Amino acid sequence: MIKPTFRELASDKKTRFRDALVRWFQIEGRDYPWRRTRDGYAILVSEVMLQQTRLSVVLEKGYYERFLLVFPDVRSLAEAGEEELLRVWEGLGYYRRARQLQAAARVVIRDHGGMFPDDHAGLLALPGVGKYTAGAVLSFAFDRAAALVDGNVLRVFSRLFDDATPVDSASGIKTAWQRAESLLDSRRPRLYNSALMELGQRICKNGVPDCVHCPVARFCLTRNPEKLPNKSKATTITELEEAVIFAVNDRQEILLSCETGSRRSGLWRLPARSFESLETPHLLAELTYGITRYRVRLRVFEAQNPGALPGEIWVDRQALEILPLGAPYRKALHQLLA
Ligand code: SF4
User: Fold this and answer.
1) Which residue, by CA, sits nearest to atom 8 of ligand 1?
2) Average pLDDT over residues 80-94
3) Which of 105, 138, 177, 276, CA to CA, is 20 to 30 A from 79?
4) 47 in catalytic set
């Protein structure tokens, strides 16, 4: 790959580094919906959504706009029922995020009279808000000089400073925060932080970066960017099998079961059955989905008069549109009911 040669150290020429980055962003920066608002609540919603869901998915499926349409402010989210909250979050997965967002909204109502906090202490006291999210809300919503470090920033810094310290190690993270604070542009933190993150998303991306179009290439020390960043823990994907049933009764109702467990309680799904318990297994649909470090092969079998077990109910097709369903089960049902 072609990489321009290093000529200046970012930590020595901070102003030149910041100017190069911000100038690029002012011309090339993308117009995301959350960049059109200065509302701390709306910024927090976008940050929580983007924590574990790809930016392209959030954008293409309109999750952000839909969430804010239903819950336009802190109060509407704080007062929402669980079923409605999970239904609106459906498709994004990791439902714990939606619950924490609602818990944060309730704290804003209780402790701040509905006014979104605009300082580190107030933000860090909100459920689910850590150092990165607090920095993002402070800089993007309030243009406050707050540093931030996420996966993109870790990758950019490891290359910019040619630093092979694993980015998931305590010392790698600590150094990245020190660099973020030292390089932060306190005159225009909103622009600078947006630029730094977008550099990591679009130019200094995973794998082979686009160094030829990099606005800060002259400050970049590494000669082998595709070898960085280093990680100490390799993520291994575990394959799992999941068997569920699709059962329809005489009234054309479908059998569903309610999820248990703190993470997914309140969600509905196709009932699980062991493969051995199915009398004459007839495969109706098969799909795979990923969750954390698992890749799951979901197989849906036909079931005749299975009888509802505790926690299972028959629901009509209209109710299917209202109930919050796990994304893989909704996808399977769409296929089966098409
Ligand atoms: S894209 Fe990344 S690796 Fe390439 S020059 Fe820019 S900062 Fe360095």
Assistant:
1) 220
2) 93
3) 138
4) yes
